[in-house]
Amino acid sequence: MSFSTRSPMTTRSQALAFLMIACAASAQDIPKDIPAAPAVPAAAAEAAPAAEAAPAAKTKKGFFGRLFGKEPPPEDFKAEASVKTEVSDKTVPVAPSDTPAPAPALTDREKLQALVNAHVAETLQKELEFKPQSPWRLGAGYAPILGMKADFAGTGNVPTTPNTAGQNREYLDGYVRVDSSGNAGGDTTFWGYGSGAQEVGGNIAFQSIAAGASGSGGSSITDSSVSAAAGFELYGFYDMGEATIFKDKGATWGFRTGIQYAHVDLNNNSSGSGTVSTFTDSFTLGGNPAPGAGFAGTFAGPNQLLGDVALARTFGGTANVQISGDRRLNVHLAITQWGSYLEIPLCKKVDLTVEGGFLLALASGSYDYQNRVSVGNTGGQTVRGSNSRTRILPGVYAGLGLNYEITDRLSLLANVRYQFLRSYEITSNGSTAELDFSSAYTLGLSALWKF
After folding, report:
1. How many domains does the chain have?
2. DSSP 71-93
3. Which residues pair with 381 in a beta bridge?
4. In 3D, which of 410, 362, 152, 183 has the Cα closest to residue 259?
5. Is the pTM of this model over 0.90?
């Protein structure tokens, strides 16, 4: 039997050579096609059994780089449980190698940018938050009232002149005044008349409007071109949701309330005619013949004389008269609206609006006039009057409109409404002005704002 022996020095030398080759392979990128290191003798393998058994003993690219923290370990190298290492005969848990590294410190510029980004993000978050929509929509716009008419009835009252000497008197068909002598001797040269029919039995008869009776007969003037161009309105729509009618078209309904202001400023100088109640004064010619129809005496004379005190005054007559002059009606209207509406979509941006309800108006105004009332071509009588009044007028309205959506919150509404109100009347000294709303309508153009 023979034994072969090897020197311990030889075995350690071979192991050291093997380790040096492994270090060189890890530190350098050695291609995979480099031939493997020479086989290590069995004695060298027995000297390092742990290194061959552990997976870490396999020579892979970047081994020492990963070992000393220069490269991240591969995924399959992460331990699911704590790695245990023996230190002084005690087992100590070690944290996994994939613990994130601390974030690097930010510069001032980066900190400022982070603040800006945070503010923008917060603002966008608030904008994107759901906000419940209000059922209210508010509208405001131009709303003139057209189609009204004004009736001026009655010529007005003329105060009855006392039947005493030394008075200036005007009549529908002439005049009797004080002349330059002061009507010395009870006669005057300052008088005139219009028609030969006024001479009756040596006397001249004059007609005058009877006080308090001038409204009888058909003495009236109508102005059909009345409008309140200075008008605007402020109103609100309250949405009640889906309507039962036109449900398939997506119709909605709700309540409407608003206030409308309008100002009627009418100046009328039309002429007309009518019949008025009169009384008659008769003056004596003193036995002299009448100077002829159309006579007009002067203040200085000399002319045909006429007594300045009436011999008789008779009531109960009538006369057909011509009326001219100037009339002004000024009325302020504050109209409240209470009703409902139905909105029917016609297309994507256009809706048809149907509305109706009740009106309650506060009307405050004044009436001033000056009429000239005469018979034939004579000077006639001048009648004046002035008065003011405030009234509450009830009424109803109905309308149609088109609503065009500009944005989700803003739209334009163009509509026409029939507005009936009780007539506004005001009387001054025997003459009445009436503002009639029976054919009035409103043309509206307004903007609607949705909350």
Report:
1. 2
2. SPPPGGG--SS-EEEEETTEEEE
3. 373
4. 362
5. no
Asked if residues 228 and 263 have their Cβ atoms less than 8 Å apart, the reply is: yes
**ω before 291 within 30° of 0 (cis)?**
no
Asked if 364 contacts 414 with a C-beta cutoff of 8 angstroms, the reply is no
Is the Cβ–Cβ distance between 298 and 190 less than 8 Å?
A: yes
106's tokens: 């930010």
Judge if 242 and 363 occupy the same domain.
yes
Q: Are 442 and 229 in contact (CB under 8 A)?
A: no
Cα separation, 277 vs 292, in Å, equals 26
CA distances from 110 to 23, 116, 162, 362 (A): 43, 10, 106, 68
pLDDT at 99: 58
User: What's the rounded Cα separation, in Å, for the pair 277 and 373?
Assistant: 12
Could you tell me if residue 90 is inside a domain?
no
Pair of tokens at residue 389: 């009044």
Is 94 a residue whose pLDDT tops 80? no
Closest to 295 in 3D by CA, of 187, 181, 196, 186? 196
Q: Could you count the other beta carbons within 10 Å of the beta carbon of residue 265?
A: 15
Q: For residue 347, give every residue at least 6 positions away whose Cβ sits within 8 Å of its Cβ, in sequence order, or none.
A: none
pLDDT digits (tens, 9 = 90+) for 182-197: 999 999 999 999 988 9
Q: Could you tell me if residue 417 is inside a domain? A: yes
Residue 73 CB neighbours (<10 A): 15
Residue with tokens 């109905």: 398
* Same domain membership, residue 187 and residue 72: no
Based on its alpha-carbon atoms, the radius of gyration of the chain, rounded to whole angstroms, reads 57
Distance in angstroms (rounded) separating the CA atoms of residues 282 and 312: 6
Kindly indicate the confidence band of residue 80, based on its pLDDT and cuts at 50, 70 and 90. very low
Domain containing residue 59: 8-78
* SS3 of residue 243 by DSSP: coil
User: Do 144 and 292 sit in the same domain of this protein?
Assistant: yes
**Which residue, chain included where needed, has tokens 């018979």?**
375
> CA 322, CA 325: separation in Å to the nearest integer?
10
111, two tokens: 């900190």
